[in-house]
What does this fold into?
Amino acid sequence: MTKTEIVRAAFKVWGRSLYQNTSLSHLARELKVSKPALYRHFLSKQVLMDAMAAHFFDDFVGFIRADYERALQSKDWNEGISTIFRSTAEYYARNADALIFSLMNVHGRNTEDFNPAELLKNRGVDLGMFQHAVKEEYTRDPLLLQLAFATLIFFMAYFHKTAKRSGASPSEEEIQKIIALVSEIIMSGLGHSGVALDRLNYEELESRVAGAVQNVESDPLLRAVAKAVAEAGPWKASMNMVARRSGLSKSSLYGHFKNKQDMLRQLFITEFVRIIAFARQGIALSAVPQEQFYLGIFSIAVYLRSRPEILVAIDWIRTRRLDLGRHGKKQPDFFRVFKDVDIGTLPGGEYPEGEEGKWQASHWILFLLVSILMRPGGGLSLRNVQNSDIRTLVRFAAMGIKGFKKC
It folds into this structure.
């Protein structure tokens, strides 16, 4: 057994539970070796995690390096950007374990001792050069690239989730289809008209929503649940923590929740229903589709800005799969924010143009919104997110990167 074999096994074993369980004992059982045998190669779990990160970056750079160099040499930056994203999409399409590791341990993580951009640069892929080149052709860098990479992660996660349900590995045709689809969404978004977006009076639309969040009532008990989840995460948040925050005894909580899973389920379902209701209040302030599109997204941003503990809790939904249990025969109306709004369609013919297509587009947009409201480093960034950032998100969702092309 070599270090490389242990690292590769860790990607598969720990990835199955989305890194909820990173026990060396679990890994040893999978490899059919003793736990001391693992310690002979890795002194601690953290040393093994560091080795996994190094392996991930080595593997990723090795896969995309040729396309990265080709993109830098391209005279057409639309083509160059597309090349980078297609190459990255292909890497994740062919490496589900790497995607899970990236989502759990790399995406959104940027601290003094862990800087993904620097780790890539040390291996020969300098995203700073790429960003500089993009800035020459497009506006709103680097938020634009953050939105593009978040889009790639979202649709790749959906691709692998769908494949897992089918129980079969993705075919070559399916891989090529998702690569083309992700690239097209990043470049063109929902296919809106730039002329229509340029006519919007953003300040006036924002003023319509201002103050409306004061009318949203908050359940004190669910707010205590949200604060516990925001502090400790959904796996470590306990009913004892909620009891302390709410001033109730743990036994009293069982009068409200059957168990911890039911507690989390009620929190997330209730909050998504409230978010959608608030967004629809904003949408109802106009009869113009382009204005409705912006009002819906901006209303969600206003709601989440006013409820930071809910924002952090929802960030766990964005980056981790949570088992919320069964809650009736019909799924709640998650993400159907734009049910009666003409928001355009996702390209490629992969998603229906009706309600299912709108569901997927709404889910994607919420993922992007939480992505920019939550900054790397684990803290809230509401004070740093301006209305102009929300406008940038809306333009990207509507038109993709091409919507920021300099004249």
In short: The longest helix spans residues 45-73.
